[in-house]
Amino acid sequence: MNPRIAQTSAPLLDTLAERWSPRAFDIEHSLPEGALRGIFEAARWAPSAKNTQPWRFIITRRGSESFAKIEAALLGFNQTWAGNAAALVVNIAETTDADGNKQPWAEYDLGQAVAHLSIQAQSEGLHLHQMGGFDRDAIRTAFDLEERFLPVSVTAIGAIGSLDQLPEALRERETAPRVRLPLEDLVLVRD
């Protein structure tokens, strides 16, 4: 049994069951020009309230100045592994539109867009790891973001690398079986 494949209580699409969030990325792997287009096209077609599409992305490749800015804004142990990914992406919610109208659903819609891109990436043989541990103000400053744009998460994208590049504590997490709450614990009301 592969500990990375989800043990589910109902059948899932293989792409969903096989999706997981590695920390060991192959530092030799690079993404050719256009390689991420499909996954961001999947994000573009995610549903959104009133079709506002309140998601924006900062897409960077390892070795670029922009990648270094994102890597520098990562917190804690995220800095020990995320720099090996082929790309770092800042996922941004447009919380107020250009006319100043609040978009209270923006973070939810961004989550859907990122979910769509993560499944598309998995189907294309790429792996992603989402992070909340980063300095939002540092990202805002580094990329001169308007107040209406809220950095919500950072995603590392690439190919799986060797466990040897990770500290021991992260190696254990990388190989541990995937665990989720039982489905029954997630449903509050069922009629």
Descriptive report:
By secondary structure, the chain is an alpha+beta fold. The chain has a single domain (23-175), classed as NADH Oxidase (3-Layer(aba) Sandwich), CATH 3.40.109. The chain is 33% helix and 16% strand. It is built from 8 helices and 4 strands. It has helices at 14-18, 37-44, 65-73, 78-81, 106-123, 136-142, 168-175, 183-186; strands spanning 55-61, 87-94, 127-131, 149-158. A 4-stranded antiparallel beta sheet has the order 1-2-4-3, with helices on both faces. Helix 2 (37-44) packs antiparallel against helix 5 (106-123) and helix 3 packs antiparallel against helix 6 (136-142). It is globular, with a radius of gyration of 17 Å. The termini are far apart. The mean pLDDT is 93.
Task: Explain the layout of strands and helices.
Elements: H1 14-18, H2 37-44, E1 55-61, H3 65-73, H4 78-81, E2 87-94, H5 106-123, E3 127-131, H6 136-142, E4 149-158, H7 168-175, H8 183-186
Antiparallel strand pairs: 1-2, 2-4, 3-4
Helix pairs in contact: 2-5, 3-6
